[in-house]
Amino acid sequence: MRYAHTVAQVRAAEEPLLAAGVPLMARASHGLAVAVATRLPFVYGARVALLVGSGNNGADALWAGAWLARRGAAVVAVLAGDPVQDALVALLQSGGRVGTAEALRGADLVVDGLVGIGGRGALRPAAAELVAQLEGFVVAVDVPSGVDADTGAIVGAAVRADLTVTFGTLKPGLLFARDHVGDLELVPVGLDLPPAPVEVLTAADVAGLLPAAERILDKYSRGVLGVAAGSQTYTGAAVLSVGAAVRAGAGMVRFVGAAHAAEQVRSRWPEAVVTEAEGAGVVDAGRVQAWVVGPGLGTFADETVKCVLEQDVPVLVDADALTICAQRKSWLTARTAPTLLTPHDREFARFGHVVGPDRIAAARRLAGELGVHVLLKGDATVVVGPDGPARVNTTGSPVLATAGSGDVLSGGIGALLAQGMGVLDAGSVGAYLHGRSGTLTADGATTSASLLVEGWPAAVREVRAGE
Predict the structure, then answer these.
(1) Using CA atoms, how far apart are residues 277 and 261, in angstroms rounded to an integer?
(2) How many Cβ atoms from other residues are within 10 Å of residue 406's Cβ?
């Protein structure tokens, strides 16, 4: 598991160590210098430019620059404020020098030490002008300048780093601004941190959370998932969500839906048990361990959604069911069994809130109001309940922005819920495998929802191969 802490938590952990004389800056700058050196084809004679602000990030850059200069690099500091004096003296005494913005052009590598984790809002105009001149390989110190360390929000100009070297712990904003962060390297500096408010699953975590094969005796012990999806018009959502559930390991999938959708599911997935919905769409599929309701269902399927939510098993609510529930929140608050809402930003807004720049806080607020878990879709998907840590998934990519992708995610997570996985684990493991399936099936190009279904087992094999 990887962990992220807020700026306030980092500052609180640093304070007693600094008071005790622990050399945190020396540890950080040495780690930064080593990271820079490993990215250079050679250190002796390399041209390194430092973009230096007035805070500790600028000092880290200067100290790292001094280390590189002592090893023969030609280091030039471009000052964008009053630098920390002892760090500047160390650079100059090591053979580095102060120069103009011209040094940023043609450098083999640029170190961004403009603004640190305390930066908020837009960069100052002079700093933004320097950022606009960056080219070549850029290493950000702790956080790319212009990126909010807590939320990943960006207002105006921000550094697009190829590598971000962060200290002590990950910061939540680094998980949401990956286009600006680039590769992410953590340098431990010895902080004594509290329990992390944000967690990131690794492949090993996912492998460990997946149901163990030796515990499975038959199709019922593997888990039975009910899927209420599709309509006479939207049959594809039914086919995709059922297919994902099958591929994600549900022992049995019981599908309930409109006649045409049922026909398509029966044709594509003969292993599913199919029941055609009648009348108002009251759900009677037989005994299940979990439900998925909503994909392609239509926004007039109130009775179907209500009937599913009245059952005392975990329920994943997606797509059209979200729209219905946004108008009938009491159906959610009345539940005692686990519930997972899986909105994208526009569906989230139907519940009366705009996501805004702090995606974790927004998701947690809605989870608390309704007594549910929320999976807020995005490039970095958030899974969070009313309390406890949030999980942020980092396997997402733009290839997942394709029709039907969300239906696959719902079916996959539903299968994990049916197999007995807790809501936080099922949501975060499902998001991880969904993202990996996208990358594997796209193979450097694009993918489709149907390919995501077929790629799910390959994603599982990949994480298990690394156990």
Answers:
(1) 10
(2) 24
